[in-house]
Structure formats: structure tokens, C-alpha cells
């Protein structure tokens, strides 16, 4: 009976080590998931910044084009 109890405790100790390994891996996977989530948010932030800069550039370019067209129209009509 003592041998059976010792065997049971040995198996329980090995199972505890296996569970600890799985918990360690799960903890590391959770950390990796958090890092990937942060990188994903940073990517969207960067994409938003580049998108905003692109819209700003397009707006400035269109503004210059329209200003040039209006100036040519103004000068062409002899209003100046």
C-alpha cells in the first residue's frame, strides 16, 4: 500500500511538472499575443498617419491646382 501511494505521488509530481510546463507555455503565448496585438495597433496607427498625410498632400496639391486655375482665369479675363 505504501508503494502504491509512493507511485501515486510520483505520478502526481510528474503531472504537476507537465502542468507547470503547459502553464509556462500558455503564459508565453499570451505574452506573444499581447505583443502581436500591440504591433497590430501600432500598424493601424502608422497606416492612419500615412493615410492622413496622403490626404493632406492630395488636398494641398488640389488647392494649388485650383489656385493656379483661378489665377489663370482671373488673369485671362483681364480682371487684374
Automatic annotation (TrEMBL):
According to the record, the segments passing through the membrane are 54-75
Keywords of this protein's UniProt record, alphabetized? Membrane, Transmembrane, Transmembrane helix
Q: What is this protein called?
A: Uncharacterized protein
Native source species: Artemisia annua (Sweet wormwood)
